[in-house]
Design a protein that fits this description.
The protein is mainly β. It contains two helices and 15 strands.
Length: about 230
């Protein structure tokens, strides 16, 4: 009888210690997580001429105020006209990443035509015909003679808008060249990657024929945009 009572006391003590240990673990403060902070040094859009030497300005990153390493990935080819990107990333101790990037545009040699007096502004898709709401886009000047179309594609046959930005330039103000953006992963690769855009001064329309990086070679899209 005495042994049974002693064993019961030990069992109660064991359970008490077990539950007190669990409570202690439960009340322990969790380790704070500090997110990485990444800052691109300099401009996020850099424009150089074909044949120039490209010297990237880099980026800096910190975690809770402490500098950390930045991983850099670049596909810039300064010897070939096109649109390129430099990607930056940094990790904290938990593997959480901060990411950012820079767009680098390499322009071809020669004088680019200033078409800003008639090309800039808002446009509505003219062809192919789409039901309402009809897709729209705008053209802005990012550098003398270099223009950005916010969405050269517009929408698909189901009228689903798919953003396909494009950079264009011209030497005569009529026929514009679409810079190859196949090296840019932004927008999931849906970036215009070569083609032409022809301006009609009578109708104020821009007829575009172009490729899309994510679709692959051999597929050409046609869109005509009317200046509003």
């Amino acid at each position: 009888m005495k042994n049974i009572r002693i064993n019961s006391i030990f069992a109660v003590l064991a359970l008490t210690l077990l539950f007190s240990g669990c409570a202690k673990d439960k009340n322990e403060p969790s380790k704070p997580t500090f997110w990485p902070n990444l800052t691109v040094t300099g401009d996020k859009l850099v424009i150089i001429n074909e044949g120039d030497v490209y010297d990237d300005a880099g980026a800096v990153a910190t975690v809770n105020g402490v500098p950390v390493d930045v991983t850099v990935s670049s596909n810039v080819d300064a010897s070939t006209a096109g649109v390129y990107e430099v990607a930056y990333s940094a990790l904290n101790d938990d593997g959480i990443a901060a990411k950012d990037g820079r767009t680098v545009i390499v322009l071809p040699p020669g004088t680019l035509f200033d078409a800003s007096s008639y090309l800039l502004g808002d446009y509505t898709l003219s062809a192919p015909v789409r039901p309402a709401p009809v897709p729209s886009m705008s053209i802005s000047e990012v550098a003398p003679g270099l223009y950005l179309l916010t969405n050269m594609y517009g929408s698909n046959g189901s009228n689903q808008v798919i953003e396909v930005p494009a950079y264009i330039y011209s030497t005569d103000g009529i026929t514009f060249t679409v810079l190859d953006g196949s090296n840019v992963s932004a927008f999931g690769g849906y970036v215009a990657s070569g083609g032409t855009a022809v301006w009609n001064g009578v109708t104020s329309k821009l007829a575009c024929s172009f490729n899309i990086a994510a679709v692959g070679p051999g597929t050409t899209f046609s869109r005509t945009w009317a200046h509003n």
